Description:
single chain; three-stranded antiparallel beta sheet; 20% strand
Amino acid sequence: MKALGPILAGLVVAVLLVSSAFFTVDQRQNAIVVQFGEVKEVVSKAGLHVKLPVLQQVRLFDMRILTFDDAEPLRFITSEKKPLLVDSFVKWRINDARQYYVSVEGDEFIAARRIKQTVSDVLQAEFNRRTVHDAVSGQRDEIMADVRTKADADLKRIGVEIVDVRLKRVDLPQEVSESVFGRMQAERKRIANEQRSTGAAEAERIRADADRQREVILAEAYRDAQRVKGEGDAKAAATYAAAFSQNPEFYSFYRSMEAYRSTFRGKDLMLLEPNSEFLRYLRGSQGAEPQGRAAGRK
C-alpha cells in the first residue's frame, strides 16, 4: 500500500505532462510556441499540435478582422488654420503573428494604442494640406484611401495589416460653427439683396420699355386714325362736290335742311331777321319762290 501512493502520483504527473504537450489551434487563430521568451515556432494550421511540456508555452492570436473605434473624436487643423473634429474607426488584423508578438508582446491594448497614434499622425498630415470643403466633402474618399495606405505601410512593422479606415463624422467645433454659419448667413443675405436689386432694375427696365411701346402704339394708332379720317373727309367732300355739280339747287336745299335740323333742335325760341339768307327756303315754303328756281323758269 505504501508503494501505491508514489505510483499514483507518478501516473498523475505523467498524465499532466502528456496533456500539456498537446495544444489545439482553431482555424481562425495562429499560435506561437515560446521557449524562455524566444519564439520557436509559428503554427497557422488548424488542428492538434505538440510542444515540449513545461519548457514551452503557447500564445494564441485571433486572425480575424478587428475594429478600433476611438470613443473621442480627434481635433485636426486644415490648411486654412481651421480646426476640425474627426470621428473615425479602423479595421485591422494580425498578418504576422511572430512580428506582432515581438513588437507589442501580443498585447491587443498596446497594438490599438500604436494604431491610434499612427492613424492620427497620418490624418493630421492629410488635413493639414486640405481646405475645410475638401475635408468635409470634396476629397473625403481620397483622404480615407491615403490614410489606409500610409498607415498600413507603417504598421506592417508590428505585424498588423490595416484593412480599412473610415471617417464617420467631420465637423467644425461649436465655436467655429457659429462664426461660419454667421458668415454663411451674411453671404446669403448679400446675394439675396443683389438679386432683389437686379430684379427691381430689370422690372423697371421692362416697365419703361412697355410704356415706350404703349406710347408708340398709341401714336401710330392716332396717326392711322387721322389718316383714315382725312381720307374719309376727302371722299365725303368729293362726293358732296360731285352731287353739287349734278344738281346745285337740290344740294343747296339739302344742306339748308341739314342746317335747319341742327340749328333748331332743342330750341324753343330764336330771333332771326325775316330777310335773312338763312331762312331763304323757309320763306319759299310760305309762298315766296326761290330766286334760283324763278330764274330758271324765265
